[in-house]
Amino acid sequence: MIGIMIFFGLVALFIVWIIAIYNNLVKMKVKIDNSWSDIKVFLKKRFDLIPNLVETVKGYAEHEKSTFDAVTAARAAAANAAPNDVKAQMEANQGLAGALGRLFAVAENYPELKANTNFLDLQAALQNIEGDLGNARRYYNATVRDFNTAIQQFPAVLVAGALGFTKREFFELDNPDEAKNVEVKF
Asked: 25-179: which CATH architecture?
């Protein structure tokens, strides 16, 4: 009788242990999903701001059509990238950052544009969004790091795979220069 009680006690402890690990991993997964959602919000803000920026610059630099087309195409590619595919989002946003850099290089050549209040406001808004996006990226990567570490550490490694928890991808940039905020000073 005592042996059966000890057996059921150990089984109960084992079940509680599995539940605790599962709940911790779920909590970490939700943090990752929430931080990814934050990144998508900032990317959407950036996408919404870009057409206004392009139109403002267009008024001053009509002959730079290829640059405007490149920014528009890069924005469309980034906006249409699979929303929950970290790798697709990384690649699309790297292209957009490069196109925006070329747009600001064009704007450098137009002193009257640099004095335009609307353009200055758009610059400030983009700079704020880029800062927020950088912070969101860092937080996302920290939550992914914590989750990936947790599912690989003992004792969670014993049950994480069986419970369906797999390693998540970091939001990384291939080119370290792309990690810098878009330069909008004139």
From this structure: Up-down Bundle (1.20)
**In whole angstroms, what is the distance from residue 144 CA to residue 151 CA?**
11
Specify the pTM: 0.71
One digit per residue, pLDDT tens: the chain, 186 residues?
A: 888 989 999 999 999 999 999 999 999 999 999 999 998 888 888 888 888 888 877 776 666 777 778 888 888 888 888 878 888 888 888 888 888 887 877 777 777 766 677 777 887 888 888 889 889 999 999 999 999 999 998 888 888 888 889 899 888 765 555 445 445 443
Which of the 8 DSSP states describes residue 175? Answer: S
Give the whole-angstrom CA distance, residue 115 versus residue 69: 24
